[in-house]
């Protein structure tokens, strides 16, 4: 069967070829009823948008990058199915629906060569202060947006992942049935750590006790978090709950608790941020937070497309974070 052309489809739909192009690219507004009619006719007539022709018209590669400076030790998780991978999967689906291909840039060593990357735009997941990946793309004039605000870079459009609200959810849940709550975050300065530490400082002030907080180098992963948690708990035996936003660090805390004969949750209650495989496969299962990463990824793709086209971004409503209570924080 011979595929119909864009001109034939436009004639059948009673619109211009330009309107058909916009209906499939999503880059200009098309009346929803008109778009639905075009899509239905395209399916019936066997029309498919030509990606090569689109690239020739736009001059772009039709590829966007998703990258993070978080090491695999914290970003990927069991079988590489972690925070970064869940965002990547959702972002790839959304990108394809917008006629773009997604290139996943794996966590890299400091001396890695990025010059081979030729993309039309980039999404940086939770950049840190002076993030190398963010600086690489923005210095080359590549449109960049971030998932989570980029510290010190108010010029970078971002999708708010509601870190303060997420921290308050975990802290208030733990604080409801604990004498004293401690905190373990990452040493690298990412906005989620900064907001969580601020929320924790306010939380402890409200309850009238001194904060007990540690930062762990992300590259150390679970083993370094286990050693840090062991020190914290030995030095502060009255701590009976820990808020540990990084799920890899939370798994390390479980190891430390076993070593110290502080069973979770009877001797130590525990909550983490990301409700992924680490939280679900842990023993006991970890209380975590549904961050609605599918919505976050879709918002980031649309924010990047707006930046690539020099348009004002349309607001995206992302559901509030939801606490998923499991055995690790049982009262």
TrEMBL record:
Superkingdom: Bacteria
Coiled-coil spans in chain: none
Domain HTH lacI-type as annotated: residue spans: 4-58
Keywords: DNA-binding, Repressor, Transcription, Transcription regulation
Domain HTH cro/C1-type: 5-34
Keyword match DNA-binding: yes
Pfam families from the UniProt entry: LacI, Peripla_BP_3
Keyword DNA-binding assigned: yes
The protein, known as: LacI family transcriptional regulator
Organism in which the protein naturally occurs: Sinorhizobium meliloti CCNWSX0020
């Amino acid at each position: 069967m011979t595929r119909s052309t864009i001109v034939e489809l436009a004639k059948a739909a009673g619109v211009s070829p330009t309107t058909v192009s916009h209906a499939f690219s999503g880059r200009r507004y098309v009346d929803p009823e008109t778009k639905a009619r075009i899509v239905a006719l395209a399916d019936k007539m066997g029309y498919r948008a030509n990606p090569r022709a689109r690239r020739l018209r736009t001059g772009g590669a039709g590829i966007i990058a998703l990258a993070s400076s978080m090491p695999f030790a914290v970003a990927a998780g069991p079988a590489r199915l972690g925070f970064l991978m869940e965002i990547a999967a959702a972002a790839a689906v959304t990108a394809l629906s917008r006629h773009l291909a997604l290139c996943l840039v794996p966590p890299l060593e400091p001396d890695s060569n990025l010059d081979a990357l030729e993309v039309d735009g980039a999404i940086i997941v939770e950049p840190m202060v002076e993030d190398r990946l963010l600086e690489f793309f923005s210095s080359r004039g590549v449109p960049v947006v971030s998932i989570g605000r980029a510290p010190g870079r108010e010029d970078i459009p971002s999708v708010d992942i509601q870190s303060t609200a997420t921290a308050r959810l975990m802290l208030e849940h733990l604080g409801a049935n604990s004498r004293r709550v401690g905190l373990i975050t990452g040493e690298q300065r990412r906005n989620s750590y900064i907001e969580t530490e601020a929320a924790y400082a306010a939380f402890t002030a409200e309850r009238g006790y001194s904060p007990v907080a540690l930062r762990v180098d992300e590259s150390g992963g679970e083993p370094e978090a286990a050693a840090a948690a062991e020190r914290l708990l030995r030095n502060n035996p009255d701590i009976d709950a820990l808020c540990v936003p990084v799920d890899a660090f939370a798994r390390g805390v479980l190891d430390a608790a076993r070593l110290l004969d502080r069973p979770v949750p009877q001797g130590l209650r525990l909550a983490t941020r990301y409700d992924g495989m680490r939280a679900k496969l842990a023993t006991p299962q970890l209380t975590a937070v549904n961050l609605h990463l599918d919505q976050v990824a879709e918002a980031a793709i649309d924010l990047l497309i707006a930046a690539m086209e020099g348009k004002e971004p349309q607001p995206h409503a992302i559901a509030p974070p939801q606490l998923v209570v499991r055995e690790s924080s049982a009262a």
